[in-house]
């Protein structure tokens, strides 16, 4: 007998006749996609000023012509993505973002959005939950409209009894609750479920039997399914979702061959993380989603940062809903090891959670010389002891990304055991880089972004050409434009008009600035490229034990998005943007803030830039500076007063040696 599917529910929500077909799904999605695009363009201030293609897509594949929306757009919020009035908003979710200086992301939901989530959860959990079941929910449930509350509402609709299991309590407390309630179903984050299962198996208490468990909100370790089957005789169902999807995104059926997408409300693409090109089915890349029925904050081609693939073919359950394979991490979600190897959280999950004694872990790379990987593992109290550290060392020594650098001595390894069954992560689990004391000068290098790490002038030139053409003005040659860039859009337009001999009045200047901003998409580069040698040089500096930061007058979220897009986020520890609080360069405030975040005195850092803004900011901070040719300097770089002048990134190591690097 085939497992149950969500197709009948999907057909009813789509308003099409059962049985559901691929053609019906595609027609429904295209119709709602066109409605969503029209609504977003008409009602959202953000989308209203975007440079979109004319008309509406003729096919789902045609959506690839539309630009992406990024997390930086949600963070910036100016102009706002909100496409309804504030009085129609039922809930606002604020998502703090680590690693940048920008504001948090905010996602607004209407009552209809929240109801759609509960409806999806209701029918999704019906695949493995029955009326009368007790359902333990290990997600936050205190706030109305949150994921835990939505799951509880869905359980009640099904005739099941929800039982909250607060995440701020020890795992042992959750195990006691499971024994007291004897639930048939458990919902929770993957590592929480794994820890609870391993504790229940070794603490001497009565054994547990749970029919089904749903794991969501984080990547799922490969060991979890086997652990739940052995200790709880439990069937595991995987779920993918995030706040931006309205919590529900994709759910595994009883065939356990991929998670069926919530295609009633989402259209999902997979794109190349670097180029943004749409990838064919079966290829692994970044998941991009477009909401189909959300009125409050419609998201058009939103880059989730999650890596995965869409599985080809139809599932054995018979459902026509497309399937998402298990996620394999996030863009920029790895750290660079000596020699250029990349260590990911998923690689450590596979190695460490295969050990029966491990219930959680943290991993930090300390940028000492040589670098040191510090791993702290959590273990159930009855299993803690020296054997844990020995087992962890043995398994890490055979992990491909680590083995060679450990054997060569280029990486040190420190393993400790926590005094609790889980670790404190300060949010979602992630790998962390930490500065360490180094016997060299400088200890840190602060990079400007535009003109130094990236050549973004071609995209500025493209947008300026569009704005000038709308005013009936000729384009500026790219070499003429380069020294005019810097100081913001208005100053750029003023300088360009002066070169052209055009003196617009205030209204005319405002119109040019508006046209430029509408055509310029800072987080969606088309012609921007990394400067030659940037990847090789930054990795070389990291391998030498230096800490790297980016200090830019751009908003921090924009800078972070670009670093991720061009494969530089794994070597940059700190990003300080122009919205961090202090005045922008040439004021020293951003430079000093970057040093504070790195834990390095300004006198032990070097600023690398391409203009007077960078050199003057470094000088005011009592910091040495290196300036590159080929950027956006309005005057000869030799006259700026930097300690060294170089032609490009490849010359930076030699320049730093001349300044004192040993």
Describe the structure.
The protein is of the alpha/beta class and 662 residues long. Among the domains are: 334-435, GMP Synthetase, Chain A, domain 3; 444-453 and 528-659, 3-Layer(aba) Sandwich (Rossmann fold), CATH 3.40.50; 457-519, Putative phosphatase, domain 2 (DNA polymerase, domain 1). It is 33% helix and 18% strand. It is built from 21 helices and 28 strands. The chain has a nine-stranded mixed beta sheet with strand order 4-3-5-6-7-8-9-14-13. Strand 5 (185-188), helix 8 (190-202) and strand 6 form a beta-alpha-beta unit. Helix 8 runs parallel beside helix 9 (223-232). It is globular and about 80 Å long. Residues 97-102 have low confidence and may be disordered.
Topology:
Elements: H1 7-14, H2 22-43, H3 45-48, H4 71-76, E1 91-95, E2 105-109, H5 111-125, E3 134-137, H6 147-157, E4 161-164, H7 171-181, E5 185-188, H8 190-202, E6 212-215, H9 223-232, E7 235-240, E8 250-252, E9 259-261, E10 266-271, E11 285-291, E12 302-308, E13 310-311, E14 323-324, E15 334-336, E16 342-344, H10 345-352, E17 360-367, E18 372-378, H11 386-397, H12 400-408, E19 412-417, E20 432-435, E21 444-447, E22 454-455, H13 457-470, H14 478-481, H15 489-500, H16 506-519, E23 529-530, H17 534-543, E24 547-551, H18 556-565, E25 574-576, H19 589-598, E26 605-609, H20 612-620, E27 624-628, E28 644-646, H21 652-659
Parallel strand pairs: 3-4, 3-5, 5-6, 6-7, 17-20, 18-19, 21-24, 21-26, 24-25, 26-27, 27-28
Antiparallel strand pairs: 1-2, 7-8, 8-9, 9-14, 10-11, 11-12, 13-14, 15-16, 17-18, 22-23
Helix pairs in contact: 5-6, 7-8, 8-9, 13-16, 15-16
């Amino acid at each position: 007998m085939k497992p149950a599917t969500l197709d009948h529910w999907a057909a009813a929500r789509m308003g099409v006749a059962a049985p559901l077909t691929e053609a019906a799904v595609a027609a429904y999605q295209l119709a709602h996609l066109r409605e969503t695009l029209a609504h977003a363009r008409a009602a959202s201030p953000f989308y209203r000023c975007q440079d979109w293609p004319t008309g509406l897509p003729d096919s789902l594949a045609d959506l690839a012509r539309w630009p992406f929306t990024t997390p930086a757009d949600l963070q910036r919020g100016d102009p706002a993505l909100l496409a309804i009035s504030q009085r129609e908003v039922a809930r606002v979710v604020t998502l703090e973002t680590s690693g940048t200086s920008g504001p948090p992301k905010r996602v607004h939901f209407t009552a209809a959005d929240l109801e759609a989530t509960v409806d999806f959860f209701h029918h999704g959990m019906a695949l493995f939950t029955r009326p009368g079941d007790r359902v333990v929910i290990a997600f936050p449930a205190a706030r109305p409209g949150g994921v835990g509350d939505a799951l509880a509402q869905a359980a009640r609709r099904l005739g099941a009894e929800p039982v909250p299991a607060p995440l701020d309590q020890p795992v042992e407390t959750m195990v006691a609750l499971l024994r007291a309630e004897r639930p048939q179903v458990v919902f929770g984050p993957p590592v929480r479920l794994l820890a609870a299962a391993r504790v229940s198996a070794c603490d001497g208490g009565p054994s547990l039997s749970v029919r089904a468990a749903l794991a969501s909100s984080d990547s799922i370790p490969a060991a979890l399914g086997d652990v739940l089957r052995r200790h709880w005789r439990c069937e595991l169902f995987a779920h993918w979702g995030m706040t931006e999807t309205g919590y529900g995104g994709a759910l595994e059926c009883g065939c356990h061959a991929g998670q069926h997408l919530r295609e009633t409300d989402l259209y999902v693409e997979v794109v190349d993380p670097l180029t943004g090109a749409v990838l064919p089915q079966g290829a692994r890349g970044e998941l991009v989603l477009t909401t189909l029925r959300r009125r409050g904050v419609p998201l058009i081609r939103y880059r989730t940062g999650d890596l995965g693939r869409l599985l080809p073919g139809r599932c054995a359950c018979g459902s026509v809903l497309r399937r998402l394979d298990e996620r394999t991490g996030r863009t920029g979600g790895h750290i660079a090891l000596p020699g250029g190897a990349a260590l990911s959280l998923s690689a450590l999950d596979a190695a460490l959670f295969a050990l029966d004694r491990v219930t959680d872990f943290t991993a930090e790379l300390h940028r000492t010389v040589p670098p040191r990987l510090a791993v702290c593992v959590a273990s159930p109290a009855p299993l803690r002891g020296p054997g844990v550290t020995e087992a962890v060392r043995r398994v890490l020594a055979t992990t491909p990304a680590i083995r060679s650098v450990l054997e060569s001595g280029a990486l040190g390894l420190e393993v400790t055991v926590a005094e609790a069954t889980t670790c404190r992560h300060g949010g979602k689990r992630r790998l962390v880089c930490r500065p360490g004391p180094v016997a060299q000068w400088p200890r840190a290098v602060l990079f400007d972004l535009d003109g130094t790490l990236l050549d973004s002038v071609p995209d500025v030139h493209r947008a300026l050409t569009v704005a000038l053409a709308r005013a009936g003005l000729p384009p500026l040659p790219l070499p003429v434009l380069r020294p005019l860039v810097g100081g913001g859009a208005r100053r750029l337009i003023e300088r360009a008009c002066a070169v052209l001999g055009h003196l617009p009045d205030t209204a005319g200047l405002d119109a040019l600035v508006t046209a430029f901003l509408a055509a310029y998409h800072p987080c969606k580069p088309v012609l921007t490229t990394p400067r030659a040698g940037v990847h090789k040089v930054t990795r070389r500096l990291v391998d030498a034990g230096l800490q790297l930061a980016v200090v830019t007058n751009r908003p921090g979220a924009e800078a972070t998005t670009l670093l991720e897009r061009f494969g530089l986020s794994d070597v940059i520890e700190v990003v300080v943007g122009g919205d961090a609080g202090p005045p922008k360069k040439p004021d020293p405030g951003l430079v000093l803030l970057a040093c504070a975040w790195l834990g390095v005195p300004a006198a032990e850092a070097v600023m690398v830039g391409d203009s007077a803004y960078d050199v003057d900011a470094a000088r005011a901070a009592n910091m040495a500076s290196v300036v590159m040719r080929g950027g956006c300097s309005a005057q000869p770089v030799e006259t700026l007063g930097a300690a060294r002048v170089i032609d490009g990134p490849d010359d930076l190591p030699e320049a730093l040696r001349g300044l004192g690097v040993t």
